[in-house]
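Just scan my protein:

——
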Amino acid sequence: MLTGIKSLLKKIDGTLIFLGALVLVAVIAAQAIGGGDKVLDGLERAGSLFESVWLRLILGFILGGMIRLLIPSALIARWLGHTSGIRGLLIGSYIAIIMPGGPYITMPVIAAIYSAGAGIGPIIALLTGRALLGLQMLIVWQIPFLGVEISMARYIACLVLPPIAGMVGAAIYKLVFGPPPVVGEIGGQTTDADPPSDTTDDASSDSENEV
């Protein structure tokens, strides 16, 4: 039982605390405005929302898990890692163009890519590209409602923004939060960005010197 409690406590981070605080404030506000009936109404609406998206969420989580399993971390680190430079920013920016589905599908996939070793800059570029350059939004929503001219003008103007956002976002992250973490192979554990020294090679070198 103690092991289960410790495992649960490890999952409590700043994001979870922040979301919990927001929920608590919302419940208190609903109680103050309309009493218990208002709170129950809010819970019923939350249930209706969950009922409409739960299958998409599950499919998104499964897809993210499969991507995490099938794509080697070394491959993601090479093309989208912290040392991938401009190449990683460009790949992250423009692979988002062909990503299908809404946030219920894409966010688990992006989270899986990040947990597999993608860098801060490429992930920010990917998020920005997904928001600005997704073909689904352009074709299904913007062109039918706004016309080809304004939609394409907006789209072309935004083509340069994701790499810039990735570069600036990575710099801000490093300035505010310090060196970016390197996500480990198992369980999303993180280590310092600088790789540890190879103690085995050092030991071998010392042995050769002694001989």
Remarks:
- The first strand starts at residue 182 and ends at 183.
- Confidence is low (pLDDT under 50) at residues 184-211.
- The chain is about 80% helix and 0% strand.
- The CA atoms of residues 70 and 118 lie 15 Å apart.
